[in-house]
């Protein structure tokens, strides 16, 4: 008969096992990488829409916002591909996490200033109706993406990653 202490030890050993942690890393990589790919691909063919989305936040000069709007989809695609492949996972996770934190700050400042904009995260962007904003959900969503990035920064090792093949431990 097993005791509560034995059961607790078995559960603790299971969720701390390297295999389970590697699976969690794979899921975090695919989650964050997939989202970045989706976001970048949704915007890459619509440069004017992407520029307008960045400009709607009203936090940088129009010229700079235009360049950021043009570059952002490509940055998201590169980060997404690298994460899905599991290549340079730790540095890519750090950059991706910082990007998500910037998105959270951008959305929060728009909300605090009373701007009524679509985040432009997956295309679109710009002004919307007052009742159409979804700031709390967008902040929570991007915070969950940042959490996946923090996990990958802390433990970049995961299953099916090119890092494991190219840069053996």
From TrEMBL:
It is a multi-pass membrane protein. It comes from the Bacteria. The keyword Protease does not apply. GO terms for biological process: methylamine metabolic process. It is found in: Membrane. The keyword Iron does not apply. GO terms for cellular component: membrane. This is DoxX family membrane protein. The chain crosses the membrane at residues 20-39, 59-85, 92-112. Its main location: membrane. Residues 23-154 form the Methylamine utilisation protein MauE domain. Keywords: Membrane, Transmembrane, Transmembrane helix.
């Amino acid at each position: 008969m097993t005791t509560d202490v034995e059961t607790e030890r078995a559960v603790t050993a299971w969720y701390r096992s390297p295999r389970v942690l590697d699976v969690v890393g794979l899921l975090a990589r695919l989650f964050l990488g997939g989202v970045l790919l989706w976001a970048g691909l949704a915007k890459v063919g619509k440069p004017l829409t992407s520029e307008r989305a960045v400009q709607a936040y009203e936090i940088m000069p129009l010229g700079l916002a235009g360049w950021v709007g043009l570059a952002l989809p490509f940055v998201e695609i590169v980060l997404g591909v690298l994460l899905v492949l599991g290549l340079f996972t730790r540095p890519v996770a750090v950059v991706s996490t910082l990007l998500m934190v910037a998105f959270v700050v951008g959305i929060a400042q728009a909300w605090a200033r009373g701007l009524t904009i679509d985040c432009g995260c997956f295309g679109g962007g710009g002004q919307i109706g007052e009742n159409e904003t979804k700031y709390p959900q967008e902040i929570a969503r991007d915070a969950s993406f940042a959490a996946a990035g923090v996990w990958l920064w802390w433990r970049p090792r995961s299953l099916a990653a090119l890092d494991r093949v190219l840069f053996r431990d």
